[in-house]
Specification:
Shape: globular
Number of domains: 1
Distance between the termini: 30 Å
Number of strands: 11
Helix content: 10-25%
CATH class: Mainly Beta
Strand content: 15-25%
Length: 240
């Protein structure tokens, strides 16, 4: 599902990386080393990108980005879930950087074809079934720089007929990638895709559990570790 937004992240993230994000691969803020010479492995090396590490280092240096993030959530979540008064939100969004001739999601041994990279659904890796994905593009997402997903559960549609998430910089996409399989292709668009991926659980649907851990961050799927609580009625950060 697509929704129009006031994308307050684009300028701050462009300033963070000090470049035109579509060309972040041409003018990166940090040396890329040998990382992009091979395809990363899912959950093993795909988070080792110097560009991804740079994001989290800069995010943790100041509260500016956290305040911006909370402001965005307070503005957008009541529009997406108008009957909810509070939410369980990912504490820090994921940054996705999909440069030309590379992939963002790492490869899996179970991938059925070389053009289907990192085929999975988030539920395969312990994410709660109640979780929704909100994708916020910092650059246009289209064709092979985006993610491809099935529109119905356990689709039998051939992979080459799956559609990419196609959004402009003034839109977001929300979907239930916990249950819907998705994958990357090698980016042949000539420009990078940079986007934020946020996981959100409507407060009325949240079931507390500390038995499962995120594959990438190694944090438990609990409030205070992977998640934070956001109370909309307070119109403040609402963190607990």
């Amino acid at each position: 599902m697509h929704h129009q937004i006031n994308n307050i992240f684009i300028d701050p993230m462009s300033q963070m990386y000090n470049c035109d994000l579509q060309h972040i691969h041409v003018d990166p803020p940090v040396p890329l080393g040998h990382f992009y010479e091979t395809l990363p492995k899912f959950g093993v090396t795909d988070r080792n990108s110097p560009l991804v590490k740079y994001f989290y280092t800069q995010w943790d240096k100041t509260d500016v980005y956290k305040i911006l993030y909370t402001k965005f959530l307070v503005e957008i979540l009541p529009k997406l879930f108008p009957t909810e008064s509070h939410f369980i939100c990912q504490k820090t969004p994921n940054i996705r950087i999909h440069i030309p001739n590379q992939t963002n999601i790492g490869i899996l041994e179970s991938d059925p074809h070389q053009n289907v990279i990192g085929l999975h659904k988030d539920g395969d890796f312990g994410h709660p079934i109640e979780e929704w994905n909100i994708i916020i593009p910092l650059t246009p997402m289209f064709k092979t720089n985006s993610i491809f997903y099935e529109e119905t559960l356990s689709s039998e549609l051939p992979f080459d007929q799956w559609k990419p998430v196609t959004v402009s910089k003034n839109q977001l996409w929300i979907g239930h990638l916990n249950s819907l399989r998705h994958f990357n292709k090698i980016n042949k668009t000539g420009v990078s895709r940079v986007s934020l991926d946020i996981r959100v659980i409507p407060g009325s649907k949240h079931v507390s559990s500390d038995s499962k851990v995120s594959v990438t961050s190694q944090k438990k799927f609990t409030v205070g570790e992977y998640y934070m609580r956001l109370d909309i009625e307070e119109q403040t950060s609402g963190l607990r």
